[in-house]
Amino acid sequence: MHLNVFAECSPSPQFVGFWRDSDDRSATGYRSLEYWTSVARKLEAACVDALFFADIHGVYDVYRGSWEPAARHAVQLPAIDPTLVIPALAAATERLGFAVTYSTTYHPPYQCARAFSTLDHLTGGRVAWNIVTSYLRSAAENGLGEYLDHDLRYDRADEYVEVARALWERSWDEDAVVRDTEADVFAVPEKVRAIDHKGDWFTVRGPHQCEPSPQRTPVLYQAGASGRGTAFAARHAEVVFLTMSDPQTGAPQVAELRQRAEEAGRDPHALKAMQGSMVMVGPTRAEAKARADLYNSLWSGEGQLAKWCGWMDIDLAAYPDETPVEEIRAEGSHSFVKFLQRLGPERTWTVADVRYLVTRPRRPRREAPVTLYGTPEQVADRMEQWIETAGVDGFNLIPCPPTGGIDDICDLLVPELQRRGLFRTAYDPAETTLRERYFGAGNRHYPG
Ligand SMILES: Cc1cc2nc3c(=O)[nH]c(=O)nc-3n(C[C@H](O)[C@H](O)[C@H](O)COP(=O)(O)O)c2cc1C
């Protein structure tokens, strides 16, 4: 199985409120190199595939039309830029991969291609790009680009990936760089090409500014689960980050994704499905429960509202309670409304229902499959069930608490998975790049 560990370069990664826990280091560590290098070394010692960085542009200002709740509760505010953290982590590790979120809405593709070639060179081929179209409008208000409607963002993203891949794959021949000191030729100019892209959204001449890196194209991740997001993933993604509510309802989602990849002319198993699950694991039931109690005691209803409203692009304070959320036209992430529909397919989710769901601390139960909660044995049983029933290839583990949870994953969960023969005990020396870790030795480049 493949295991990534989720992180954000902000004080309370994913769980609003953990900055208040004096034992958790994320509140100040998120902006410290010492913190991130110790996290990366820990994950590498546990043979984890990759450290995954989520990221946003702009601030959560949809709830009540204000960023005050986001600032008050540290809802991905403040946040530093994770792409700039990665080279330092690459220097502190040798094998760990790094996946980083980069928006097709708020960066130009030429710059994206250069940034990822740089990361791929500096990490020796250990980098992945989590392709997102972004859901926050507020970045557009800061001059980062135009906030298009949901499906148009994906149309633009399709062309964006085409441009970036052309720069990575077609601009420099493998033997373009000769470094011939006698002849005074560094690169053969005929082997460095323009891409001459002229499309609906972009005009990019090229050539690419970087020579070919170990993987050329970084491993392509994707996370949006709307219909349009799934079509995009089926077309481009190699690793898909899914947030499914349980293995039974997850099975058709994974099957649909693979089927759509096949329809797009791809090998359906050349696409790794990773379930994104919060992990709350303790050495004993009592200690797992202590983590759950801490999580509940730190819960910030207002902070959660700020986050969900931003994700959905719906201000849950602005509509009458009985309004069905599906009827509200919103251009944010459609994945979350879909998630609600799967959580309770028989019901109409109203604004009041969603507010209640979001603000109420959700005590994790071992029976609630979306959270991997309990002892290492209980959690490993649950993961096996996800693999067998839903057909996932691995997990993007969201550690809870953010810092202590990383230790729990590495010191408690991974050894249990290794004992069961489900997870590697050493990195395969033949797999030198991140893509080879997912797809086997020799598969360094994006297929096709
Ligand atoms: C599990 C998950 C994680 C995501 N992580 C990020 C992220 O870190 N940054 C971001 O801008 N968008 C993130 N997104 C948003 C999407 O990737 C997507 O680009 C956008 O929300 C619209 O697509 P959708 O309607 O298909 O969700 C995430 C979405 C999901 C479902």
Account of the 3D structure:
- The chain is α/β, with parallel strands linked by helices and 448 residues long.
- The protein has a single domain (2-169, 207-439), classed as Luciferase-like domain (TIM Barrel).
- It is 39% helix and 14% strand.
- It contains 15 helices and 13 strands.
- α5 (109-123) packs across α6 and α8 (247-263) crosses α13.
- The chain is globular and about 70 Å long.
- It starts with a strand and ends in a 9-residue tail after the last helix.
- The model has no long low-confidence stretch (mean pLDDT 94).
- Bound molecules: flavin mononucleotide.
- Flavin mononucleotide binds at residues 54-56, 101, 103, 132-135, 150, 223-226, 229, 241, 243, 276, 333-335.
- Residues 26-393 form the Luciferase-like domain.
- This is LLM class flavin-dependent oxidoreductase.
- Keywords: Flavoprotein, FMN, Monooxygenase, Oxidoreductase.
Helix and strand topology:
Blueprint (H helix, E strand, L loop, with lengths): L1 E7 L17 H4 L3 H13 L4 E5 L13 H6 L12 H7 L4 E7 L5 H15 L3 E6 L17 H21 L6 E4 L4 E3 L9 E2 L4 E2 L14 E4 L4 H10 L2 E4 L4 H17 L8 E10 L3 H14 L2 H12 L22 H9 L7 H9 L11 E4 L1 H15 L3 E6 L4 H16 L14 H6 L9
Parallel strand pairs: 1-2, 1-13, 2-3, 3-4, 4-9, 9-10, 10-11, 11-12, 11-13
Antiparallel strand pairs: 5-6, 7-8
The structure holds flavin mononucleotide.
